[in-house]
Amino acid sequence: MITRINAALAGTICLLSAVGANADQPKEWQMGLQEAATPIMHEIRWFEQYTMWFIVPVTIFVLVLLILVVVKFKASSNPVPSKTSHNTAIEIVWTLAPVLILLFLAFPSFNLLNAQLTQPENPDLTLKATATQWQWNYEYQAAEGSEPLAFDSYMLKDVDRAAAGKEDHARYPRLLAVDNEMVVPVNKTVRLLVTAAPTDVIHAFAMPAFGVKIDAVPGRLNETWFKPEKEGLYYGQCSELCGKDHAFMPIAIRVVSEEQYKTWAAAAASDLSGANRALMASVDGASALRVAANETN
């Protein structure tokens, strides 16, 4: 009996671990960036850590300098104020030092911007995301001989969770889960065209784990790209103040294997709801099989 209980607990832990590893979202008291899921996000996280080697020493130096000035040059210690107007050596140092620091920051910054803005040739998939108060519409580029695929993505309401099979708040968090996720294959380059409805306002498509953030402007087509390295469910939000429901305009991207994506895309053209349910069953089923195997052993 104890063995069976231990096996069940181990299976549950494995399932929770699998779920946690395959989804990235904001966490309580989170201080840093989300875990990287694309090559660009890896570079962004490296650049963040790199800049800290400059930010921390400069901050400490300025703090120490302020304390030193307050203590050493207070009125009680210096009843007769100094008449010094300038110091050539100090002026040279505080001019050259910031220039050198900015140079060390500029070059890796430019390299990162170049990597973000250089569109890869021959992307594996092209998508168009159109923002409207307050939802997203995703349109997939149709391959030859296939049906076009386009659908809206709204924030999932609590009353609709049971019908959608998304009652797990850990995997489908409140205010971030949507009714229809964008689905893309893993390890494939995705070209993303972003705009807003002609009569709408400015929005912004932001996916932190992918290192993607780009404005959706009415009448303008902006372009970005990403290449997800890990399967899972990732969450972002509109990041441009767009009206009263700005906080209720989430973005969800489900990254799956190439086989799962092809199966989903073929079915979604005619039955989006059924394709989503089949995909969810396929993804969750993989975790269930691992748990069952652990319990059997």
Q: How large, in whole angstroms, is the Cα Rg?
A: 26 Å
Mean pLDDT: 86
End-to-end C-alpha gap: 14 Å
Poorly predicted runs of 5 or more residues: 1-21, 287-297
Largest sheet: 6 strands, mixed
Q: Could you give the order of the helices and strands?
A: HEHHEEEHEEEEEEEHH
Shape: elongated
Number of alpha- plus pi-helical segments: 6
Query: What class would the helix/strand composition place it in?
Result: alpha/beta
* Helix fraction by DSSP (H/I, runs of at least 4): 40-55%
DSSP strand count: 11
User: Approximately how much beta-strand content do the residues carry?
Assistant: 15-25%
Description:
The protein is α/β, with parallel strands linked by helices and 297 residues long. Helix content is 42%, strand content 21%. The chain has helices at 2-21, 39-72, 88-117, 161-164, 258-268, 272-296, and strands at 23-24, 125-132, 135-140, 149-153, 182-185, 190-196, 203-207, 212-216, 222-226, 232-238, 250-256. The strands form 2 sheets. Strands 1, 5, 7, 8, 10 and 11 form a 6-stranded mixed beta sheet that branches. Strands 4-3-2-6-9 form a 5-stranded mixed beta sheet, with no helix packed on it. α1 (2-21) crosses α6 (272-296) and α5 (258-268) packs antiparallel against α6 (272-296). The longest helix has 34 residues, at 39-72. The radius of gyration is 26 Å and the shape is elongated. The model is unreliable at 1-21 and 287-297 (pLDDT under 50).
